[in-house]
């Protein structure tokens, strides 16, 4: 059976699930919305899970506490099942791809826009074609496996997590829809279809963030995510159109073929602009500075959403797109430098904010932003396969951490504030163990997945001709911060004395297997997943352990990739040194966290100075609010209102005034000039009549005199002249 | 020589009478002087061998028209008028225009003197045997019959008109 | 002084009489005198006609003079009738006092 020709089915399975939910969902599970009470004074740290912080205020508490109607199991079976089907098909297809020569398979089931002729920027004629086409090559194969695999685990987890909630069918419908769009994104064979998926995942993100739409904060967060994304998308569209105008096509293989013949661009030219616009789109989607502000707010959505969308898949779409455009980025060192710099800056910025956050999900959200920064750093210096490698390992441990935090929140009856946690490690052991593994992985302890990918990134940043030592330093410091804040989280949550109230404490329970099994699987992945990307330095290991790089090599062999080649003429000793340094830094971070949070009981401190700044996220949201919302939007609105009032209405009023004025002028004209002319005529006639009427004496003699006078004249004229 | 003498006498009579006619204050005096002037004209007719007209002039003009004038002068009360100004306000302009016309006519006469052989003395009438009256009658009732009849109608109209004019109530 | 009398003399005389008559018509206020001046003019014309009749040896001029006299008669009669009617209405025989058509 030729699975390669069936790759178009991979996205279609979850689409079918979503359609089923749209059409039948309500009948299978009539409770449409989550039963969240809008109690005034509900604290922001409260999870919209269905258990309010003060359960007594929740009128639907009793109803929501059950497990829903009897037909819910159909949904629980169908939707994860669809994703599982996609996963299995993906595995089969990838297996067949591996045996195919060239490792590239493209199928075009349908042409969307067929060959509209147009002229490119340099005048050459081209045809504007967009296909519904799917491309399976090593890069997209990695992506589909990651997406479907992690998505399946999260679907299973959600059957447990969302069991107490209303809106069950809606949730799974949206999740399936999201998987569909994500798969479209990664399987597309051209930028336009990728963009369809890109927009689609943005839409699903909005729908899922605002899942608890009764809460204003959730709706606002959904809006924020969509709007900020949109800004990036505008740049993406521009980049795509520029690509059309310059290269004549947006199909990946065509673009790569055309770019292969071009020289590296000196300075900032058309290609650099194109790459920069595409990267700007990625900035929005993958939450880099300055468009990262939506990601922390996105934690308003249910925790599985945070895990799937904002850790494992959607946010990685930007990285995937940059890697896919590797041929373009390797030709544009200016833009690549910008990519790396933005990535590095975002990484350290987000890590610094994560240090001071008290909401467990916020810490993880900023951690995601920071790790995405790492991925862009790698892509910026030309090490595209390393970026994808980090994407892959990050999917494991971040999803694990998010799901684990969801489990914690579930156990804590909705509490998300770490200051009120503590001493949970014995009460929810599976959750604790799996999160332990995840935290160690993200810190970069050797042997676990995070170490291999992060270390490789740091090495590439140091040694690649596109990288710089300063950037390495940024990455190193971020690694330290990462270890620190992750273990701060661990210590505050699981260790020490319990700081929660009695009622919550009594309620603590381990999560059901639906939730713990995916956690375990992801923990295993975090441990073992990294071993397919062992560094070359560890020459003791045979090449089979480096299969990830080799598998992806043909995709990134554009001939200009600076990444690997430069590494050759650096000392192995430096590499060992740097490796040791990164491990030391990780261990140091953990140790320092232990010193601050593990050894002594947690004491809440008033946030002052730098702590306060970090707690308030460097006031970036406030700055945006001031600049763009108050300044641009409201200020613009006010300016426009003033314009409308003064200029437009002024114009109308002026027109009215002018009409009236011209009426006055007109009447004056009529009275004095027109009537004046008439009166002047009569006046002239009257005046001229005065001398003339003298002639009318009435006396016949005068008339006779005139006769004679005339005769005299006539005689002169006719006879004497 | 006698021709000359008589001519100048009659001419003087005519012109003097005319001038006096138009300058008298009293209308009756003007009428009388007009009669004198007409007599002079009649004399001039006679000198030109127009005997019939000489007679007609006296009988008709003086005996008819001037008598009529005198009757009318008596009818209308001219005493008041006699006390008032004789000439109208623009008499100087009338004088100037009239004089101009007269001068022009004289100028024409001077210019055209040769054309009409005005220097020649008058020729005798053609037929010697017939008298002036016969000649006139000859022509009047043959060649100029129509004007003659028309003239009679004109006179009829004048008679009727003047009667109506003078009636108190039409 | 004793040069022969040519028709030119008569013409000059006629012209003079005409002028005098015109002056009378134009300058006298009394309507009766105006009518008399008109008679003078007509007579001047008659003199002219007779002179030419004599010059050409034809009698046509005289016939014409007869008609002139005829017309003069008619005109004088009608004119005087008008004067009487006017006098009855206006109580005046002065031409410049009859100015109903004055502006």
Care to describe what's here?
The complex is a heterotrimer of chains A (721), B (170) and C (103). Chain A is built from 27 helices and two strands. With 721 residues, chain A is mainly α. Chain A has a two-stranded antiparallel ribbon. In chain A, strand 1 (105-119) and strand 2 form a beta hairpin. In chain A, helix 9 packs antiparallel against helix 12, helix 12 (316-324) runs parallel beside helix 15 (360-380) and helix 15 packs across helix 18 (449-463). Chain A is elongated. Chain B is mostly helical and 170 residues long. The radius of gyration of chain B is 20 Å and the shape is globular. The termini of chain B are far apart. The model of chain B has no long low-confidence stretch (mean pLDDT 87). Chain C contains three helices and no strands. Chain C is 76% helix and 0% strand. Chain C has helices at 7-27, 31-56, 60-90. Chains in contact: A-B, A-C, B-C.
List keywords for this structure.
heterotrimer; A: about 725 residues; mainly alpha; two-stranded antiparallel ribbon; 27 helices; about 70% helix; B: about 170 residues; Four Helix Bundle (Hemerythrin (Met), subunit A); 2 domains; globular
